[in-house]
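Moderator note: this is an archived Q&A kept for reference. The question asked for a predicted structure of one protein chain; the sequence and the answer are reproduced below.
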Amino acid sequence: MIAVMTRIQREIHHFRSMPETARRLSISYFLRSTAYPLISLFTSAYIWQTNKDLTLLILYYIGNFVVLPPVFIANQWLLRHIPLKKLYATSVVMTGISSLMVVFYRSSTPHAYIFYGILYGLANGIYWANRNFLTLRHTTPDTRSYFTGLQFTLGTIASVIVPFFAGWIIVLTVSAGILPSTQIAYEALVGFAFILLVLAGYIIRGMTIETPVLTQNNAKPFSRAWQRARLLSIALGCADAPLYILPTVLVLQTLGNEAVLGSVSSIMAAVTAGITYVFGRKYRQQQFYPVFISLLLTFMLSGLPLFWGIGPFAVLWYIVIANLTDNLIWTANEPKIMDMMDNEVRASHSSYYRIIIDREWCVNIGRVGMYGIFLGLALVNQTLALQVVASLSGLTALLITLPTLKRHKS
């Protein structure tokens, strides 16, 4: 017990040793991480449970990902007119407005869900464009590793605990008569998430935050090496697109209710965090291409049992394999892309902001393209779409990646 208390006091001391801006940002990020499962996983669950219409869920995410890259560009204009601190705080609060509209307004038209998705994407785009800069500029080399590790740990804790409790709260409060309906339970959850987001935006008040340099001079066209990075990013977007929809729908359709969904999500978050940590320690960048191709093949493998029917085994197989693969492929891809970004800044005299925006375009081109295929299949037959899209996403990503392999060998 004494050892535990000593460790806690040591961690508190580490936290307090960071600058005040870093401490406030850390708390703000954690509050948003806590709200995130409620405004992502359970908003998707609500859309499916309310309508049982796969096309509405796909349209919601198309709206989200279509708008992300333009928002990164628009963020530069916004920063010239709105202080970064206010822009960041506004984006945090806006993230919850889309979920509030989904749950409280209860429209079931396709146009409404596209609008909700666009609103969610607007908030997310502004949030991430400014969060990355805030983290870079308001942590120091001495505190950056601790700050990053703390955010990963707190984010993992939130992703393990929040879905479990949220799912069971929905089921138990309704079954026990504490809340009169599932609708009220969802309203309470997204209302609570919105309060967390308001606090996450409010806590940075009074901070002194500098504005990033936004000028871009003498930039050249992108190099051939960056064209390979673009294809890899499009492939990555194709591969991971179904994971925003498929696990939620498959669990609710096959394995049970929101309690099961929350439990499965929490267990997978804990398992993938542990395996990804081990993978990150062992992985070396010279292994990138064989690892990347192997993981795309694994995406294809994850969906194969669904071809023979959407049953408990096929669903669990897909969720376990696809979630693990997604975490590993992002862990392998990010260091490689960052190195390619460094090289491209030197080769084309680009700013990092320009490179990041271009990368976002490519990842979301892959996602939206795959959602377009998913939507076409769902309009023909929802069951068929659920059965084939997982493997099809891996196959499409693999085909997009093949030209990069030829250029890499040459």
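Archived answer notes: The chain has a mean pLDDT of 86.
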